Each structure stands twice: as C-alpha cells, then as structure tokens.
TrEMBL record:
This is Uncharacterized protein. It comes from the Bacteria. Pfam families: DUF6931.
Length: 171
C-alpha cells in the first residue's frame, strides 16, 4: 500500500520500524508535506483516520452549508454503523459537493472502502483496494490547502499533523 501512496523519494527514506507518525515527522522536516500525510494514511486504521479527518474538516471550515453538514452527518452515521444504502447516499451527496472538496473526497473514500460500486441489481464491481486510502489522502491534502489559506500548503499540513499527534497522545 505504501508504494501506491508515497513517492519513490519518500519510500527510500521510509523506516518500517518507525510509526507512520514518526516517518511523517521526518518527511515534514524535509518539507515533503504530501508524503508526510501519505505516511499517516498508509499506517493508520482507515476508519479512525477518516473519522478524525472529518472532524478536522468540520472544525476548520469557515462555512457550514447544509449540503456539507448533510454529507458529513451521513459519513459519521456510516462509520458508526455500516449500511450499504447509506454508503450510496454518501456517494451521491459527495458527488454533489464535488470530489475536489474535503468532505466530498472523504465521501468518495468511504464509498470505495467497502462494497461494490454498482447497485445490488447489477453484477458487483469493486474498486482497486488502494483507491479508498488514496482518496483519503486527497481529502487531507485538500484540507491542508484550506487550512493554509494564503500560506503554502506545508503550513496546513503542519497544523494537521500536530493535531493528529495530539489526538494520538503525542509521539
């Protein structure tokens, strides 16, 4: 999975004996913010990271529009109790928001995480296993850009990684 998320340069310095958070810290020191986020995505339990990313997105948003709130609520409910009909609702809401938004990207990540991409009446078609984590990484990158605002995305990624460390009890 790491090979599909991290750049070759990051893989060359990645230490599998360290946690994703420790690797992320080293990558941030080298200003490889995208690889630092990828390290967290590769090494963290996906549902836990998704729930945390959703909360961070809601915490950092300046506008809490109804469609965003509705999609976020459906994601939270799905994470609490998996339901295929809800998973399809999340996909539809995320598509309306746009997959180029943090909540929309999280919705697509959730949709690809579990189950077929086709409705029950059709033959099942499953996404490639790495796509859900890749879209989760995209959501974190989009969120980093939003947090950074006028600053370089590196600043937003630093904020996110500091908040991730704090949520994990530091490291």
């Amino acid at each position: 999975m790491k090979e599909q998320l991290l750049t070759p340069e990051a893989l060359a310095v990645y230490n599998s004996l360290q946690s994703g958070a420790e690797n992320a810290s080293q990558l941030m020191m080298a200003e490889k913010w995208e690889d630092a986020l990828a390290s967290i995505v590769a090494d963290s339990p996906q549902e836990k990271l998704m729930a945390w990313a959703l909360q961070q997105t809601l915490n950092h948003m300046t506008s809490h529009e109804q469609p965003v709130q509705q999609c976020a609520s459906e994601i939270q409910q799905w994470l609490a109790e998996r339901d295929d009909a809800r998973r399809f609702r999340v996909f539809q809401l995320a598509e309306k928001l746009g997959f180029d938004t943090p909540v929309g990207a999280l919705g697509l990540s959730l949709f690809w995480m579990d189950g077929s991409m086709t409705p029950a009446e059709f033959d099942a078609v499953y996404p490639e296993p790495h796509l859900s984590r890749l879209m989760l990484l995209c959501a974190l990158k989009l969120l980093s850009i939003e947090i950074a605002a006028e600053d370089p995305p590196l600043k937003g990624a630093q904020t996110l990684l500091a908040e991730w460390r704090a949520a994990q009890g530091g490291y």
